[in-house]
Amino acid sequence: MTQKTKDLSALVFFILLVMGGGIFIGTQTLPGDWFAGLTKPSFNPPNWIFAPVWTVLYLFIAIAGWRSWRQGWTRTPMQLWFVQLVLNFAWSPLFFTAHRTDLALAVIVLLLVSILIFITKTWRLDRISAGLFVPYAAWVGFATLLNGAIFALNG
């Protein structure tokens, strides 16, 4: 197997891991009646916006993970990439299934911090990966504010 084939196979793996994980968690933790009944802030976006935004972000996350993997599994960016993925995948079950807006808020704050650290650590090594995480950071920052507002409004 050539290096190009290995790289392409790894990219496909990262895309399947992130997109597949996101789709699986998304379909298993649908918002449902509980979420519909919550008081939401005025800046709450319409539900239809989440799927297209997350589809693009998951693609960006996968590409950044693949690029970090190419630099080595034990390097800090790769470790941070895995941390953010675990936190990302943990949020929906806490929020939508367990109805723990408080714990979900703690997780999303940690997620945002891990994303920002990833950007900081990769900026000089790999600006493409860092840049791919900038819209992710912006969206998660917004989602953190939204989670916090929902927690505050619904106690």
Automatic annotation (TrEMBL):
GO CC annotation, single: membrane
Query: What topology in the membrane does the UniProt record assign?
Result: Multi-pass membrane protein
Give the GO biological process terms.
Answer: tetrapyrrole metabolic process
Read off the InterPro entries from this record: TspO/MBR-related_sf, TspO_MBR
User: Where is the major localization of this protein?
Assistant: membrane
Q: Which compartments is it annotated to reside in?
A: Membrane
Which protein family is named in the record?
Answer: Belongs to the TspO/BZRP family.
Protein name, per record: Sensor histidine kinase
Q: What is the lineage of its organism?
A: Bacteria, Pseudomonadati, Pseudomonadota, Alphaproteobacteria, Hyphomicrobiales
